[in-house]
Amino acid sequence: MAIVLFWCLMNILLLRRELWAPPAPVLLHTVTAITEPMEEWWGIYYRGEKIGYAAQKITPETEGYLVWDSSLLRLNLLGTVKTVETRLQMTAAANWALREFDFDLRSEDVRFKARGKVAAGKLHLEVESGGQRTDKELPMSQPPYLLAALKPYIVTQNLELGKEQLFSTFDPSTLSQQITTVTVEGREQIKIGGKTEPALRIRQRFKGISVVSWVDGSGRTLKEETPTGLSLVRQKEEEAKILATRATPLDLISQTSVPLETPIAEPTKKNLLKVKLSGFNLAHFPLNGGRQRLTEDTLEIQREDLNRLRSYRRPIRDASLAPYLQSTPFLQSDHPQIRALAVRVLGGEADALKAVERIRKWVYDGLVKVPTVSIPNALEVLQTRRGDCNEHTVLFNAIARASGIPARTVVGVVYLRGAFYYHAWSEVWLGQWISVDSVLDQFPADVTHIKFLEGDIDRQIDILELIGKLKIKVVEAS
Fold this sequence. Notes:
Elements lengths: L1 H14 L3 E3 L16 E9 L2 E13 L2 E14 L2 E14 L4 E10 L3 E9 L2 E8 L2 E8 L5 E2 L3 H8 L6 E8 L4 E17 L2 E12 L2 E7 L5 E5 L4 E6 L1 H4 L11 H4 L2 E2 L12 E7 L13 E4 L2 E5 L33 H11 L5 H15 L1 E2 L8 H7 L1 E2 L1 H14 L4 E10 L2 E11 L3 E4 L13 E5 L2 H4 L10 E7 L1
Parallel strand pairs: 21-22
Antiparallel strand pairs: 1-10, 1-11, 2-3, 2-16, 3-4, 4-5, 5-6, 6-7, 7-8, 8-9, 11-12, 12-13, 13-14, 14-15, 15-16, 17-24, 18-20, 18-27, 19-20, 23-24, 23-26, 24-25
Helix pairs in contact: 5-8, 6-8, 7-8
């Protein structure tokens, strides 16, 4: 269920996204310069209840701008209240082209830092998590620009209503580039703090999610909304910092679950599950493949039979599976600590199937099960020895890859106590992709694990399209 925490963080970062690149730099030539310091505050709401606040300060400098952005969220996760803060500081040239940024996410559970600097057509990145630093370079055909310039640009350009414009964005939390579509929808009156103000309505589409923004004549944000129930409303600083008074805020995990009309009896004993899916565009997700078969809107899931597998001696020698053995900034399978752990856990076991059993058992036994607000990172999980599905999955995958067994993260939903909850688990290559859930101690995972996508943290953003829309009806469970 930790995937919901990731969803919430990504939604806030989606609303507060700061880095963007126009299709051509010429678009920024006529942006009105900001000559005086500008500061804005917003309250953050989920389904009408305040869960945090955000702020942005823009300070003109001799050769550009200094932009400071922050947010604070107070989240209820299965009865445990967590606080998470993000901070983002950036410097930009006079045309708003990015020079440097420093991103920091912290909670009671984790701290994640990413720094970036643009030079020689590349974005040079430094990532710090789990006490370790990872360097990475991203080639860029043009430097990213700051979102702070986008809305002032739009209100001064008299853009054609309904016309879509594409922008390439960089997300510092996932270290990935994405495409955002922006459409000016019209002018309307909007009520903010008891006062009615004229506003320009703008829609941003990103990874299947639409963010609607209302901005004033200066390009300042009055309000933003997502269909998932998250919204920002401009407020004075004192008002923005006042959070909900109830002792326990809305439970995000329960609020985003997908209820069923009829419970599934003994779900872990089922070998077949058939469900009808609705509420979203099925073509946007790779539902067909492996143990899943899609026919129109009906998905059939057949549990794997481990007795029919043909195992192999690790490490595997197959170049086509090399991407699933690679180390990444969040899944550091080549780190000495991870490699040493893999040797210790496997104890010389060469058979891949038996090795997966050992890794699953060690991760399940070795980690405390608690809802965790984090950007999942294998090294950090190894140090803290705690977490939910994302944390178990990323550590399991890192150990598997370090052991020469291809592994990948998959994301979807799982059935628990009358509803489907958003969830992450693993797949390992044992002649075919086989599911493993190291937080629920299942190998293979039961058939109520419905997979919607696979991939690292930058791909998991795609799950945003489902939340608040997905509907599931059980046709057969046997």
